[in-house]
Amino acid sequence: MKTAIVVGSGAAGATVGRALQGKFDVTVLEAGKPFRPFPYSIEWLQKFRKTGLFFDEREIQWLFPTMQIRKTAEKMVLVNGIGTGGTTTIATGNALFVDRDFKKLGIDLGAEFDEIISEIPVSTAHQKHWRKITRQLFEACEELNLNPQPMPKMGNYENCKHCGRCVFGCPLGVKWDSRQFLQDAVNQGTKLETGSRVDQIVLENGIAKGVVARTRFRSKFFPADLIVLAAGGFGTPVILQNSGIECESQLFVDPVLCVATEWRDAVQHREVEMPFFAQQDHFMLSPYFDYLSFFFNKNWRQPARHILSLMIKLADSNRGGISGKKIDKTLTEADKAHLQQGVERCREIFGKLGIRKETLFLGTLNAGHPGGMFPLTENEAQTFHHSALPENLYLADATLIPQSLGNPPTLTIIAIAKRVSRLIKDVG
Ligand SMILES: Cc1cc2nc3c(=O)[nH]c(=O)nc-3n(C[C@H](O)[C@H](O)[C@H](O)COP(=O)(O)OP(=O)(O)OC[C@H]3O[C@@H](n4cnc5c(N)ncnc54)[C@H](O)[C@@H]3O)c2cc1C
Ligand code: SF4
């Protein structure tokens, strides 16, 4: 049987590994370790907020190595997951099927979305347990004609205990993450090598011969007949560049900014994150307790239980890039204007609850949906394979997304990974 290397075990990598195993003898190379949820209590940790020990978001990695944090020159905090399951383990489980920019290219992901619905439970069962303040926010959005919708979530939310720890890894296994697909792949015979960070692809006469990865401080060559990169929107471009393949400076990240206020006993941090959303042009709004801001932003002084916060998730311009450890990402004037519109909307929503705008404070700009540096165009609508790549090298992750979705992208990424897998199998 032919051999395939899949790089990464997040939304895309786990999907491809599972789909190709059997047709290929698959090895998944994953840079991180097996995922473990964050073990510490938030109540215990918040006692240290006043000590000045929490001064840089990158400290999180010491306590929780899964959460990789980087910062741009403008101090935007960039987050992604390292370890089995990739970023899906620290995601909030939102399940939106978004393919509008693909349709413009003549790509219909409908068949893949149908398949996903039969494989991943999607539910709004959390709605029964919303706190009073969440219902009030929802009603305020309705009164403002913002068309709020309960957020569909991936997983079995009938069993959700509303602990609010989704971004630290669900301790109860309620939230779906891509380790489930990864386990399916392993059960079918896929080899999983954790602690194996791929540096580059070895190319010979225009054909990919394998990859070089660092495993336990040694460099090791993994030969393969087929290579699929699924190292995420930050990881895949670096591997391509290390291999002499240029990417486009079209990085998007979906920046997030929270607008918050003090609200006695809101207890928002003890509720499922992002229980509903209101889609607007250029951004979406959603209730969100932002732990990054809570621990590291000096404006967030109140105890967790008394903070009420709304997130603005922006669809940013495709402008920027990553090269080695350097990330070049700044917001354009249009991005800043759209964020400001989001802040105004949040003021109106809070205003409906009688909250004065002088009491509002902002969170730290952060982002966790990177992609776009090898975007699909009409030319690849049928093949999902760029002519600049060797014929046996495919990409399968958010790197292929043509422009920022400004929405949770996991289901779109899984759909892309499914399509890429099917096309590979068709080619043989
Ligand atoms: C806090 C947060 C909350 C989110 N919530 C949601 C949500 O509710 N719904 C939603 O749809 N999306 C959400 N997202 C986004 C979503 O999780 C990601 O967009 C998605 O997981 C990306 O899938 P991927 O396969 O492209 O990359 P990832 O899931 O990031 O997987 C990439 C994998 O590759 C590995 N890797 C990287 N470099 C290398 C290398 N050189 N060699 C080997 N392995 C490598 C990584 O360790 C990782 O396992 C959230 C993101 C964040 C940060
Ligand atoms: S709120 Fe629900 S889904 Fe989120 S971590 Fe807790 S139990 Fe899991």
Looking at this protein, list some descriptive labels.
alpha+beta, FAD/NAD(P)-binding domain, 2 domains, five-stranded parallel beta sheet, 11 helices, 22% strand, globular, binds flavin-adenine dinucleotide, binds iron/sulfur cluster
Fold and architecture overview:
This protein is α+β, with helices and mostly antiparallel strands and 428 residues long. It has two domains: 3-34 and 177-250 and 372-427, 3-Layer(bba) Sandwich (FAD/NAD(P)-binding domain), CATH 3.50.50.60; 54-82 and 121-175 and 255-367, no CATH class. Helices cover 26% and strands 22% of the residues. The protein has helices spanning 11-20, 42-46, 60-63, 100-104, 110-119, 132-143, 179-187, 232-242, 291-296, 333-352, 410-427; strands spanning 3-7, 25-29, 67-71, 77-81, 122-123, 149-150, 153-154, 191-193, 196-204, 207-215, 218-223, 226-229, 255-262, 276-280, 283-287, 307-314, 321-323, 326-328, 361-362, 366-367, 393-395. Strand 1, helix 1 (11-20) and strand 2 form a beta-alpha-beta unit. Helix 1 (11-20) packs parallel to helix 11 (410-427). The longest helix is centred in the last third of the chain and has 20 residues, at 333-352. The model has no long low-confidence stretch (mean pLDDT 96). Bound molecules: flavin-adenine dinucleotide and iron/sulfur cluster. Flavin-adenine dinucleotide binds at residues 7-13, 29-32, 79-83, 86-88, 90-94, 167, 197-198, 230-233, 235, 239, 368-369, 397-398, 408-410, 413.
